[in-house]
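no rush on this but wanted to send it before i forget. what follows is a protein written twice so to speak, once as letters and once as structure tokens for the fold. mainly i need to know what kind of three dimensional shape the backbone takes. thanks a lot i owe you, the record is right below.
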Amino acid sequence: MPQTPWRRLFYVGVVLLVVYELARVYFIMPLPGSQRMRSIDFAYALHSWRWPLRVLFGLCIAVGLVPAWRGPAWRKVVVPMSLALASLAAYGSNVTMSADRIFIAPDSVVMRRVDRNVVEMARLVVGIEMDGAARAYPVRFIGYHHQVRDTVRGKPVLVSFCTVCRTGRVFSPIVDGRVERFRLVGMDHFNAMFEDETTGSWWRQANGEAIAGPLEGKRLEEIPSRQVSLYQWLALHPTSLIMQPDSALASRYSTSYDYETGRSRSALTGSDSASWREKSWVVGITTSGESKAYDWNRLRRERVVNDMLGGKPIVLALASDTVSFFAFVRPDSATPFSVRNDSLVAGPDAWAFTGRGAMAPALEPVSASQEFWHSWRTFQPETKRY
């Protein structure tokens, strides 16, 4: 009887450790109900205190182990099973359900010109141009990795993609004057979340904002990017380098086009073909502090949208491949644009989708992103609908 409190301590330690490990995973992974809560602060607290809590629960188990073992024969079965359960929970939390072990970031990125490229021309890419150097990162690869690091003209870049939100973003990974490293730690409101190596702060992929930790409130500088087909990107940037598959991870890349074309019906990454549903596609644009979402189905029908946003006349256009889209500021609100032969046309003037015109001044590009409606609405709560 005197050993009863110590024996109970063993079982309390096991239960608390299992509950803790399950809770730590639940609040940062896409499990039923977890991504619809405002629980990021609680999730970060669980993560920050992981080692003190594990040590505490481990001590409870160690102190109560011998008293729990002594006694009837059935305890010789229950105690090992309890230890196995605790070990399984810890292993699952730190290995099986660890985001950066499920989606492995490449150690290096192989970039090639078109003459040595193995990526199909119909694949979607996230493209950037910096100081005259163009790069294309296939969604097929970065959608699995979630983040890849590269250097363009001597400048570090962080290319990211969240397949559950359909958000492609490129950031400068410089934080407080130094190049930072990030790892995928989980997600919040269905958006990928990265942890920086220096402070352990958590950063949201959709807008580059630190949402928990010492750097909460800071934002990474976003680098303008475009989501287009590789064919369209190379038509505009023929000397672009193209990211190639990581040979060590080739088996993990999707071989189908279902995600890119919207045919996937996966619960997390699938699309809804109707308009304005949770998983419907929209093109989101923010300029001068105003945000608006444009229905992808309508854009496919009309191919061009002339609108006013943030006090600026803008044009949103879809290329003939029906997957590549572009947005620019129009020279004036009185002149509507149309699309002809993959060019923007207004009166006698024409512009390529780079924004450059033969005779007219170049158009100012506007950042536009194709996303699931639930994602754009969540992270742009003041958005309007076109």
